[in-house]
Amino acid sequence: MRQLAGTDTIKTLVITHWHDEVTGLNAALAGSGTDIIAHANTKQWLGSTIRRRGDEIRHLPLPKEQLPTRVFHDTLTLPFRGASIELGYLLQAHTDGDLYAWFPQQNILFTGPAVRSDGWPAVDESSNGFIGRFVDAYDKLAALANDNTVIVPASGALLTKAGFDEQKVMYQNLMKEMVALLRQSRSAEEVVIANPAVGLQPQWGDAGEFLDEGFRSFYGHLREGQYVGTMP
Ligand SMILES: [Zn+2]
């Protein structure tokens, strides 16, 4: 940690959502005076018991001293090496507390958890991830980037703007196919079997979980015509 940061004291820690893979440092830094920044929803999740489909427990409340010390709702600008880092909120994509970090001076965009380049993403319905706004998140991020932006996904190799746009179009098309299946009253199991993602990213492995969770995430948004059309 010290080597990575090049300093003994970590003044600020930004956590991009509530999942374990990005919150391990909270415990290590608790009580050290580090400012822990997160979206307001992420702080709420971290302090709660989270269940998968109302059943299996996925998360127990963190001790108070490990919770974020500073939260925001929309955007937050932090000073960084004579310039700034702009943190922004992506609504309900991977969870409902996803952050990105935009370094305008360096032209680097860290996408946060919504974007990966080495596997199918997760739309975590237990904390209000939603495939419709997951696709919107791609639009929001695309609007920040230009042809020379270095795009850093949550996992996998760096992306160029062109590579990022390819992913965006792929997910837009995939969502259209999933909406078509929804409108035929198919179940999530049938969508996984129909596998509209077949052949799209063979190196990413099985898309079943993404399709299953992504499809189920429509259920709470059936009145949102901009995503699912008008139901008959
Ligand atoms: Zn995650």
Helix content: 25-40%
Tally the beta strands: 10
Number of helical segments with 4 or more residues: 8
The secondary structure category is alpha/beta
Mean pLDDT: 95
Oligomer status: single chain
The main pleated sheet reads as: 5 strands, mixed
Strand order of the largest sheet: 6-7-8-9-10
Q: DSSP strand (E) fraction?
A: 15-25%
- Helices and strands, in order, run as HEHEHEEEEEEEHEHHHH
Question: What overall geometry do the principal axes of the alpha carbons give?
Answer: globular
Task: Give the end-to-end Cα distance, rounded to a whole number of Å.
Answer: 55 Å
Q: Cα-atom Rg, whole angstroms? A: 18 Å
Name a few traits of the molecule.
single chain, 232 residues, alpha/beta, five-stranded mixed β-sheet, three-stranded parallel β-sheet, 8 helices, 32% helix, binds zinc ion
Would you mind describing this structure in some detail?
The model has no long low-confidence stretch (mean pLDDT 95). Helix content is 32%, strand content 18%. The strands form 3 sheets. Strands 6-7-8-9-10 form a 5-stranded mixed β-sheet, with no helix packed on it. Strands 1-2-5 form a 3-stranded parallel β-sheet. Strands 3-4 form a two-stranded antiparallel sheet. It is of the alpha/beta class. The chain has 8 helices and 10 strands. Zinc ion binds next to loops.
Q: What is the structure about, briefly put?
A:
This protein has 232 residues and is of the alpha/beta class.
